[in-house]
Amino acid sequence: MKALLNILPSLLLFFCNLLIYTNASDENYALTYQYEIIETGTLSPEYQASRENRSAPVSIYVSENETKEKQLLVFKISLDIKNLPQLRVYHKMIFNIKYNDQELENIWIPNNETNRNFKLPNIPDDFHCNLMKCRIGFSSINNVETSMHNHGDVLPNDFIYISLEIANNKNRFQLGTITVPTYIHNLYAVICPSKNWVSEYGLLKYNPNNHFMIHFPDGITDSFDRHIKLMNPWNRGEDNFCLCGHLEQNFGPSLDIGYNYYQYYASEPTLFVDEYSLVFENNTLICEEWDIFSKNVVAFIISIPQYNFQSNRTTVHQLTKNSKFYSGEIIAIMVLEEMKGWYEENDGFNDKFEIQTYCNVPNFNANLRLRINDTLQLLTTIDDEIYGEIDSFTIDYKTIKNDIPADCILEHDKQVFPQFQDLYVKRFKTSLQIYDEDDKKYYDVEALKLLESNKKYKCSLIVPPNHPDVEELDFIKEYEFIVIGNKDLYNHTLQNSTENFTNDTNGNNLTNSTNNRSENTTKNIKLVIYISIGIFGCLIIIAVTGISIWIIKNKERSEKCKSKIRKLLPNSWKKRANRSSKK
């Protein structure tokens, strides 16, 4: 075991405490400690650990079926910056455990990196303990007659325990500090303790935090007895802390274990730009010379907010076979041979592995296409009298329903891998727009019912004002077309899109006056229709009334005529009879 304790750069040390537990019945134990600068060997003064009285007994694990209650005596060690001999250097801590002013040598450290116990005399130089190697646990024999001499046997059920206790209100213990220059947007990996970091016999339990833990291919994990965690300095947060896990204490608060970020100023931060892009080769994807799906590398996908309107944070996730690629993303490659070499050289914490290989997701040429009800439409080129040679789309208005959506979608040329199917959906928004002849402008349309016959439309790209490559989007082609249909069957009105984009995120905002104009037009047309229906109804009523009156009058005239005829007929017969009698 290497005798190093790479504990903390002194500038960012938080107050922590090491607690030494032993039998309260014997108060002749004492603890002193020193700091030593690793590079120079300079020692700090010797400090005396303070004593604390605790009366509550604790259950100590002895074996699978046995526990033992012990009364505890507590010693505190304060890791205070004022006690350090020099700032911003690596230190090791030297402990000296004494009984009746005599230093103890027959002290055992359980569960080290070889999973076996070893004695203090087998460690070169003075006694000191790396938090990972020692697993935060000491064991010792409390019986002076048998254990304080070199020839005594070690009893399995007597232990002295060490625990961590925080001394400030952040409840945090830092394994180290990672320095990152401001102008580099790279990823880093750090070593985190494994779940067996602390002794199973101790008064602690360590729970790793698996978020951003790197998953290695089968067979590679055996090379690492500690966890490798990905650090993302782009989203440092308010406290600049990378969480490795949590340390649960029986006699203290839960501690967050991890690394602090420290960023030094180098230059103004710039957007990540890399000259390499993913290349299609032999039915796979190559980043520089590495197959990104090979077992020799671990790949990560970085999505930055400048190319992702769905998020305002930089996100990172590990590449899998089911991962999708989106325009503007960056692929980071961790070469496992380089990682292994760094891991073997890094005996403790407080170091970082910097990922060196990066590639951009390539952009393919793409065309904006009209989509109706999630189906791409085929357009026909015609020679129009007004617009000249232009694509056309024919609509059968008889079959249209109000809820059929109409929009535009980007269709790119290459689809070698299914992972590129939605290449542009996060980077760009699209818009279906109608051309207003009066304003000489385009306005958004969202429903098929709103498409007017013999009007010009355009599938356009909506680019946010803060987009970094707004002048270099020549790989995307917008296009215009007209709609052909039977306009007389229905009334179609211009309606502006309800989706307006704010100045800080999107372009093509519509004005309130345009909205009012569209609403007024619709209201006026409805009013004309209602008035026409009313007038038509009145005319029908008048016509029916006139016809009824005419029929009634004709009927009365007919009755009068019949009555006169009846009166005339008898008189004529009488005259004829008189004439006959005279003859």
Instruction: Give the overall shape, derived from the CA principal axes.
Output: elongated
Number of beta-strand segments: 36
Strand content: 25-35%
Q: What portion of residues is helical? A: 10-25%
* Computed CA radius of gyration, to the nearest angstrom: 44 Å
Keywords: Membrane, Signal, Transmembrane, Transmembrane helix
Protein name: EGF-like domain-containing protein
Transmembrane segments: 527-552
Signal peptide: 1-24
Architecture blueprint of SSEs:
Elements: E1 16-23, E2 29-37, E3 47-48, E4 50-53, E5 58-63, E6 66-70, E7 72-78, E8 91-99, E9 102-103, E10 108-109, E11 118-119, H1 131-134, H2 144-147, E12 161-166, E13 172-181, E14 188-192, E15 204-208, E16 227-231, E17 241-249, E18 255-264, E19 279-281, E20 284-287, E21 290-291, E22 297-303, E23 315-318, E24 330-335, H3 336-345, E25 353-354, E26 357-360, E27 366-372, E28 375-376, E29 380-384, E30 388-394, E31 406-412, E32 429-436, E33 441-444, E34 456-462, E35 476-477, E36 479-484, H4 512-582
Parallel strand pairs: 13-18, 27-35, 30-36
Antiparallel strand pairs: 1-7, 1-12, 2-3, 2-8, 4-7, 5-6, 8-9, 10-11, 14-16, 14-25, 15-17, 17-18, 19-20, 20-21, 22-23, 22-24, 24-26, 27-28, 27-31, 29-30, 32-33, 32-34, 34-36
Structure overview:
The chain has 4 helices and 36 strands. It has 583 residues and is of the alpha+beta class. It folds into 4 domains: 168 residues, no CATH class; 189 residues, no CATH class; 145 residues, no CATH class; 44 residues. A 6-stranded mixed beta sheet has the order 29-30-36-34-32-33, with no helix packed on it. 25% of the residues are buried. The N terminus is likely disordered.
